[in-house]
User: Fold this.
Amino acid sequence: MADDLGRRTTRHAVVIGGSLAGLLAARVLAEHAEKVTVVERDRFPEGPEARPGVPQGRHIHVLIAGGQQAFDELLPGFTDELRELGAPKVGVPEDMVQWQNGKWFDRTPPTLHFYAGPRPQLEWLVRQRVFADPRVELVEGHETVGLIGDSSRVRGVRLRERGAGAEKETRVLEADLVVDASGRSTKAPDWLAAIGAEAPHEDTLDTGLAYSTRVYRAPDGALGSDTMGYFIVPNPAQQYGAVVLPVGDGHHLVTLSGLRDDRPPTEEEAFEEYTKRMPHPVISEWLATAEPVSPVYGFRKTANIRRRYDRPGRRPAGFLATGDALCAFNPIYGQGMAVAAISALALRRALADPKRTPTTQRVQRALLDASKPAWDISAGSDKKMPGAVGDTTKPGPLDKAVGWYMGRVQQRAAGDPVVGAAFREALHLTAPMTGLFAPAVARAVLFGPVAESPAGPPLRRDA
Ligand SMILES: Cc1cc2nc3c(=O)[nH]c(=O)nc-3n(C[C@H](O)[C@H](O)[C@H](O)COP(=O)(O)OP(=O)(O)OC[C@H]3O[C@@H](n4cnc5c(N)ncnc54)[C@H](O)[C@@H]3O)c2cc1C
Assistant:
């Protein structure tokens, strides 16, 4: 790496945060730097267990198709290994009973798959792969508490041992490049301000969505019939949702969601009561047969937040942000892990571009661009949710026309194979949203009928 990212060469890169975005960025940086140090405030568990620094890890995490491609490119064979560890592979629409916009989806053969399975297991697998590279080192149990440098260049980070108390001395880790991957609650804007640089503007859109999740075991370890999961997708008129997915070993995660004024409960009895409000009792009936095997876990930080490091300002060289620290989404769309991997690929391309010097500004822009398709889906849909707040709620010039078209897409996605497949490609980040305007899709959206969809939850695959 020769440029303002690291003077003549990047000898040492520091990545703040050892979760997915940080690990995958480290993987790519190791191709360019002599040494990469990942600084993580947690001490990693030995095995695939949940840890405090990633509290969302107890909730349903699906690895969508666009994420699978990116993980496999970064870590060849990754999804095979994930499957060997027991992560269930779910075909959509065939394996799911899905309700969206007042319609049950036909269970036709899958056009895409996602992986369910515990989030800690997926991260553990990435960790094994990334730290197998001797150029990637770990400083765990240490929190980054600030940056060193000035408004023109970041020169390292300041660390404090976790649990040592605020009075304990900090130590400095010098670096040619610092990458912030410390997640949606990053303190980097404050750290930048403290060295005289400018904190980024934050685009925000918050529906106040909350999750409540509990693990269940069914008597026969399954949902019954040939169904792998249930998904009640919320919409502006019906704002609570539920997802049930297998995570291996006969266990299922049940995640309920609701908005600010109607959050799903974290009390055990009320949790099951809440499922009775769904448009159909299919989930509450299954819960009545299943045994809860965990407490109920809640999660509330779900706002869409995009930090605009790409905008002009006093931005120091040698500092980048990626993953949720750069752009965090409403988790209901299941995109964050995929975007972490897609961003690492964008980092790889930007650093290796033979035609353009990878300046901090260029690389940061490439990282932001990598998150844009997911942002457009997540913030674009959330804009329509009642009670959404934030500066991204203002309607844009094309919103009305796009909203009209997307309404027709959604009406047809459940029963029209062409529209359904294109819709899933966009949601899974395997094709851009513009794919929904391709001639064959547009014809079906503009002139095709709305196919009849099943009257109730289709508990069997289509014959
Ligand atoms: C409820 C919920 C459900 C989700 N479901 C899905 C899903 O289905 N599919 C999907 O793809 N994505 C999902 N996501 C998003 C996904 O969890 C994240 O996008 C993904 O983990 C990548 O995040 P990250 O690595 O940027 O940050 P995080 O995973 O949040 O990790 C940040 C890391 O930085 C560390 N850290 C923080 N501060 C410091 C510091 N000062 N010093 C050192 N270390 C620090 C933390 O300990 C942690 O390890 C969901 C998110 C939530 C909230």
Remarks:
- The first helix runs from residue 20 to 29.
